[in-house]
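From the pipeline queue, job 12 of 40. The input is one protein chain; the requested action is below.

Action: predict structure.
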Amino acid sequence: MNKSWKRLELLFLVLYALAFYVVIIRRSLHLSHEYYGRLRGLRQGWISNRLNDMSDAQWRNFRGNLVVLTAVFGIFSLVANTARTLYRLKGRGMSIVWLLISLSYLAYLHGACVIFILSISSVNFFLVKMFVRSPYFSAILWMFNILVLLVNRIYEGYSFSFFGQSWASLDNYRGTFRWHICFNFVILRMISFGCDYQWAHQVSHFNEKVFEFKDKPANSDRFSFTMYLCYLVFAPLYIAGPIISFEVFALQLEMPQNKYSVIKIAWYGVRWLLSLLLMELMTHLFYYNAFAISGFWIQLSPWEVFIIGYGVLMFMWLKFFLIWRYFRFWSLIAGIDVPENMPRCINNCHNLETFWKNWHASFNKWLVRYIYIPLGGSRTKLVNVWIVFTFVAIWHDLEWKLLSWAWLTCLFFVPEMIVKSAVAVFQAKSASSAFIFRELSAIAGAITITCLMVANLVGYVIGPSGLHWLSSKLLQREGLPVLAGIFLTFYVGTKLMFHIRDVRQNCW
């Protein structure tokens, strides 16, 4: 493809994208204005007296507690960094400091329920220490943690009265935040500690090339109970992550990260504030999530359902982007560098593999490290994805719609993997067919994004029961032009991503 043709193509793609977003924005504003009186979760806002979409409980809690969280983490970081400087503390000393700080934080969040957290964590620690050299170690570790995950959800964090009337009074002191929700992240850390401890005892350690962090195996001195508990409840990462392996955490507690200077961390915070402003504009102007939870999507046309589904996906991406970057910001101040959870915008992912590497990226790295590679890696990829995504669904919650989302994603993953293998062969043998290859790749990208949209609509908007309704609507005479328009839009979006990729490759 010559340069003049590429420039013309890029101009057309940009104009189409601008027109698409003008239509989306206008229709979204119209829908929000037309239905605002019947939508649930709208609160009085601060921008031009408009209502603010606070229908998402997670975002509502985070935004409502933002000032308090900032004050608390500011004090925590000041105390910890001052203690490190004054007393020249290293790994073990800093683990004690952060453990005490974090336990005070947990006491406020969960009250007496800290007893459950410490009890389960202690049992896991002793199981790891006792069975680390057993051939059944992996089975014991995984069975225990998955069992805890399921039982926590089934019994909704337990009741103290269940253990006897003498404990019943503690149910009056359960804190302000449900402990078993946060404990999902603790489960991941307990598994990480167990696996890293086992690998540290093996003669041939895992291949470092497959992991982002290329560190030496942690020595056994790091695997103390205080370091373990500090890792599980480290305050800046406790509620929502990002997730980091035990080895890397222990190393950085010994030697704080030096990749980010004070100026870089400050600029990271400023960018976060600008992103928060963008979120405020979005929730004041467009009530996407309120539509999703209010059930009015069934009254809308296929085109409007697509707009709501696309908007919910944008809202979710920005919500998690802000939450994860906020806690990563405080972790960096504390000297712990964790992976960026949203390193790439959701609108710049044209295949499922790229999407999942850039959506909750630290969790993706955790899954690769502790599930995907131990199960055989790319040699058994077609089987592994089903196990990985089933675990992801169960880890999030015990809901059929999440399992439906996971299995739909796997179903869409399989043809992508097959096509990728075929394309690799085609590309190697047909270097002169770059144009055809590019067009086929764009079509494949459009199909993938369409499938991803359907999976997320089922998982987060219409549920499994709405899948039949959606398919019947889109396959009718009214819906077919909409389906064609959606596909064309995603094709254009994929071609734009190719141009962005080309620019980056030329710059680098």
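Job complete. The beta strands are 42-44, 51-53.
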